[in-house]
Each structure stands twice: as C-alpha cells, then as structure tokens.
Write a structure and sequence with these properties.
Helix content is about 30%, strand content about 20%. It is of the alpha/beta class. It starts with 13 loop residues before the first strand and ends in an 8-residue tail after the last strand. It holds the Pfam family KH_dom-like.
Length: about 475
C-alpha cells in the first residue's frame, strides 16, 4: 500500500463528492487521492459511510470526502441514514463535486438532487463521469439542463479529463491561508530523559471485531457525532473508514472496519473486498481494539481475530461493549479472560475496558488504555538488566538436553520494539524447544511488565569452525 502524501498542519479545504448511487464517485475518489482507498464494485450502494482522504491538487492539499449515494428514503431506513450522512458532509464542503453518469443520461434523481445541491449555497462543480468516447462527450452536454453550470466530462476509471478536473478544483478553492513565519519555524520543545516516550505522529488505531459488536457505535461515541452509519442490521460497515481524533496531548487516527466473519460464510465478492480492507487496516495499525459483545462472551471467531492481531504483531486492547446489559459482571469478565489465556497465551495480561458504546458510559477509559498499550508495545529493555535476568532464568531452569547434549545459551539482546523482539545467542540455540521458549517469554512478560503485547523470541546458534574439517 502506498503511503499517504505528506499533509501540512492546519485546516484543509473540504471537497465533497456527491451524487446518486453508481455514478462512479468512489472511482473518482480513488483517482484523486492516487490510491485504491475506497471499495469499488459494479454494484449500486457500495459506499455507505463517508470516506475521507487527502489529495494533492495543483500543489494544494485538500480533504476529499466520498459519500454514499443520494436516494429518496424514509429517515429511519438504512438508505435514509446514508443520505443523512451524505448531507452532513455537504454542509461542511468548500466545494461540491456533483457527479452524474453521462452514459445513463439525466435521471429524475439527478434533477431532484441537483435542485437540493443548489439550495446549499456551496460552490458546485458538475462532473459528467463515464464520458469516454464520442457518445459520452455528447451525452455530457445534456447536463446543462441541471442548471449547475458547465459540465466537465471525464472518465474516472480511465483517467480521461482528470487533469482538467484538478485545474478546475484548484481555481474554485478558497484562498490559501499563509502561516506566520515565526510559527512555521518554531523549534520543537526538547524532551527530558525522564519523560516517557510519546507518539511523534497520529497514533494509529484500528477497531476490529465480529459484525454487530458495536464498532461503529463506539467510534461515533468517541467522536461525539453520528459519523458512521449504525443500526440493528449486521454488517453495515463495508469499507475501512479512518477519522482523526484529538485527545489531550495526543492525536489518534482511528479506523473503523467491517465485521470479520468466518471464511466459510464469506461468499460475496463485495464482502471479500471488505474483509481484505479490514485486514489491510490492521496491518497499518499500531494498536488494535478488539470489540466484543459482552452479553455473548468470547466466540471462536473472536479468538481467530485475536490470533490475527498477534500474528501481525500489534498491541491489543480488549473492549467489552454492552457492559450495561451484563448481569453477573464479575463472572463474565473472568470467563472471557480465562478463555483468552487458555486459547491465546500471547494475549495474557491484555488490557480490558468495559463500557457501553450506546449510552457512552465509561467510553472515556478506552483511549488512555490504548495509549498505555502503545507504550508497552514500544518498550525497550536495557541490555544489562536483560542479561542479569537471563542468567537467573538459566540458573532456575537449565536449558534442556537436545540429542543428548545440553544447549549452551550465552546471552540475550533486544533487537527491536513494535513489538518487543529478543534474540538468544548460544551453541545450538536454534534447537531450543518451544516449551523453553514459552518459559523465557513468560518470564520476560512478568519481569519487565510487558502485558498483552506479542513478544517475539528468536535464536541464533554459534557456528563450529571445525564442523567441515
């Protein structure tokens, strides 16, 4: 996955892509941000939550928002909630890119929502997408009937006309704010040696879990707004949606993902794409928040997701949602932690936060727990203290015999953090049995206070210079 372009500090102009379903809004979004960030499929209504990204347009960064298709529907229905989310995005736009399908021509829905867009008192750029070829160009001229100005014909899929679109966007953006030179070049404050390690950029958090565990409701509660589409229907979130949240001195980039089901139940192409996007988001995370429905306990699929977090080497926070509906809280908490410790030893000591995302009760405890998990994930153990502990562990339980010969383990060092990774050196160290590795890993976790994060233990054997003589 390509990294995002560098983004300057401060507010960015907001450009919102709007229009009825299946006119190519997400394809245009991906084209402008320069990467496949939004799910695209030949199915109407793929986009449900508004997706944000940063695009570089003629030397200026913009905050680009892809929205769900505008449809007439009852406010309480799924499509009604999707439309409300799109309308909320339009309200904050500095520029609206109103898209139509040039091949389909002007539809009654286009006319209806064009009238609505005109009433928003926002600058509008009319996009006639899918206008490749002579027929598309001719069809784009029909868009004059919408009364939104000159239509710009292009093909987001093939890239035709996108360069002209960038020029048009740049000309319609509000004037760029110029920061004071003293502010731009202000030196960063120096950190004392006693101060704990802090994130140098946004702390990347991914929310994962099974469908209908309350992931999107949790994100909405953290943000204090209805940013994500929620409801009783399972699997509402299809794409991975990233938002930025400021909390005290830290900034969090939080990604809400689609619910992960068993592979045997995933049979639709679109759902496979959603699962792939969720796994990709997890790979880019620093801390994973595993959301469980506390009223249902630990499901086998929850354990599979936890194993995926451990395999990717991410810090983890266990989020027990719907805690207000749990009757025997002590027994429920113990049952969940016992199941995790038995089935997944690497999750031993994982921080647990209990809350109700729907009511907001105790949700404020989550981000401090995420920050603490990140600190443990970045921990480094001094080599001197590590080897003093290592000698004690060897004296307590001698290395085992392998093929009648005892392993001679000499010293240990930490080679990296994120997650903490250690290497044991010694004669035939590569033959160390798994149970002795677990003994050392459990000791590391207890001695150096490394709960709930994956610990990697590698071995390096000493070569015998006379082996080939």
């Amino acid at each position: 996955m390509r990294p995002l372009p560098p983004v300057p500090t401060g507010d960015l102009p907001v450009v919102v892509i709007a229009g009825r379903p299946n006119v190519g809004k997400s394809t245009l979004f991906n084209r402008l941000v320069g990467r496949r960030q939004a799910l695209v499929a030949d199915t109407p209504g793929v986009t449900r939550d508004r997706k944000e990204g940063v695009a570089l347009v003629r030397g200026r960064h913009i905050r680009l928002i892809d929205t769900a298709g505008l449809e007439e529907a009852a406010p309480d229905s799924l499509f009604g909630r999707m439309r409300a989310s799109s309308e909320s995005a339009v309200q904050e736009a500095d520029l609206i890119l109103f898209c139509i399908d040039a091949r389909a021509g002007i539809t009654p829905a286009d006319e209806h929502f064009a009238q609505w867009v005109r009433r928003q008192n926002r600058p509008v750029l009319l996009i006639a997408n899918k206008a490749e070829g002579r027929q598309g160009t001719a069809a784009a001229l029909e868009a004059y009937a919408l009364g939104l100005g000159d239509p710009l014909g292009l093909s987001a899929e093939h890239g035709d006309g996108v360069t002209d679109l960038m020029w048009e966007i740049a000309e319609r953006l509000p004037p760029e704010k110029v920061e004071e030179e003293e502010e731009a070049w202000a030196p960063e404050p120096e950190l004392s040696e006693e101060e704990e390690i802090r994130p140098t950029g946004p702390l990347k958090v991914t929310i994962v879990g099974r469908p209908n565990a309350g992931k999107s409701t949790l994100l909405n509660t953290l943000l204090g707004e209805e940013r994500m589409i929620t409801g009783p229907e399972p699997g509402l979130t299809r794409d991975s949606i990233a938002v930025t949240l400021h909390d005290g001195d830290d900034t969090f980039e939080i990604v809400d993902t689609a619910g992960l089901r068993k592979k045997a139940r995933i049979d639709e192409t679109l759902e496979k794409m959603s699962v792939s996007a969720s796994i990709e988001a997890l790979k880019m995370a620093e801390v994973a928040v595993l959301v469980l429905d506390a009223t249902l306990g630990v499901h086998e699929q929850d354990l599979q997701i936890a194993r995926l977090i451990e395999r990717e080497g991410r810090a983890c926070v266990l989020a027990l949602n719907k805690w207000d509906a749990v009757e025997d809280r002590t027994a429920t908490r113990k049952a969940i932690l016992d199941r995790l410790s038995i089935s997944l030893a690497q999750m031993r000591g994982v921080p647990v936060v209990t809350f109700s995302a729907l009511t907001g009760s105790a949700v404020h405890k989550l981000l401090p727990a995420v920050r603490d998990a990140w600190t443990v994930w970045n921990a480094r153990v001094p080599t001197g203290a590590l080897n003093r502990w290592f000698e004690e562990m060897l004296e307590r339980h001698q290395p085992p015999l392998v093929d009648g010969r005892r392993l001679k383990l000499r010293y240990m060092t930490q080679v990296k953090a994120r997650p903490p990774t250690f290497v044991v050196f010694g004669t035939r160290a590569e033959q160390m049995p798994d149970d002795y590795k677990r003994y050392l890993v459990n000791g590391l976790r207890e001695e150096f206070d490394l709960p709930g994060v994956p610990i990697r233990l590698q071995t390096r054997g000493t070569k015998n210079p006379y082996a080939n003589n």
